[in-house]
Amino acid sequence: MKIAIMGTGGVGGYFGGLLARSGMPVTFIARGAHLAAMREKGLRVRSVAAGDFTLAPVQATDRPADIGPVDLVLFCVKTYHTAEAARALLPLIQEHTTVLTLQNGVDNAERLGAILGEEHVLAGPVYIASAIEAPGIIHQSGGPCKIILGERDGRITERVERIYTTFQQAHISCELTSNVRKALWEKFVFICGFSGMTALLRAPGGLILDCPETTALYREAMQEIVTLGRSLGVDLEEELVERYMQLTETFRSLKSSLLVDLEQGRRLEIDALQGTVVRLGREKGIPTPVNRFIYACLKAHDPA
Question: Of 53, 63, 120, 125, whose CA is between 20 and 30 Å from 75?
Fold first, then answer.
């Protein structure tokens, strides 16, 4: 299976690295100093889950059109680059090409499908803590490192099984689902609440739980998203919020990627997170005051 990694950050670098280590023909799409370091020294992955390893040399480029048609693309760019990156992928797409988006948010597959064709796109939530530590170096620091995979219409198709087998061969934890929309929304509830609150407080997860007022705000933010998802027909369990409250106890020292981007003055994925909650809530007539507050406060710091 010929594979391209669109966006060699924490997610793409880690999973793409495992695929390349297993012997798959993988080309990494990157840019700037990160690309230069990969070309010179290869890609180094520091991982608490998979162990440390270095791939040298690696196939890496900032010109997707030079790769040619592929079987699978892991689409891992920040959500604000989705349209631009999707258009750059067009030369890679042939009849049987699958593009698997591993991005944050719940509507990336629809956005990609509008450009690449609905039949080419799969969406799967991914659970991992990983980031670029330095040019050419990926640091995976936590999380189950798991991808959930399934067709949007609920079928477990031949292509899904083929990708699943490929991931298994690369020692990538993967779970098949007949309800990928629910899986996306389940992650969305947590990633919005945790990312939004840690960025709002400029602090790791522990501070959320150490103050009764912020604990209550955190719970309300997630409950708004559960209510919104259920209004859209997503079968989200009411106990989901309490489950995530308990999970946050294990994330006391963790900073969300949204907070890290804020601290480093980078663009924020706030429109794909709280911005989507606010927009869908307005369309459905569902109040989302806590998420609207978080969105407004963080949007003011988005350099876009």
Answer: 53
Q: How far is residue 28's CA from residue 23's CA, in Å, rounded to a whole number?
A: 14
Distance CA 3, CA 60 (A): 12
Hey, what are 16's tokens? 């793409």
What DSSP string describes 84-134?
HHHHHHGGG--TT-EEEE--SSS-HHHHHHHHH-GGGEEE--EEEEEEEEE
Provide the phi-psi class of 51: left if phi over 0, else alpha when psi is between -120 and 50, else beta: left
Helices within the chain (DSSP H only): 10-21, 32-41, 82-89, 108-116, 158-169, 180-201, 205-210, 212-231, 240-248, 257-263, 274-284, 289-299
Q: Which amino acid is at 212?
A: P
- The structural domains of the chain, ordered by start, are 3-178 (3.40.50.720), 182-299 (1.10.1040.10)
Read off the pTM.
0.96
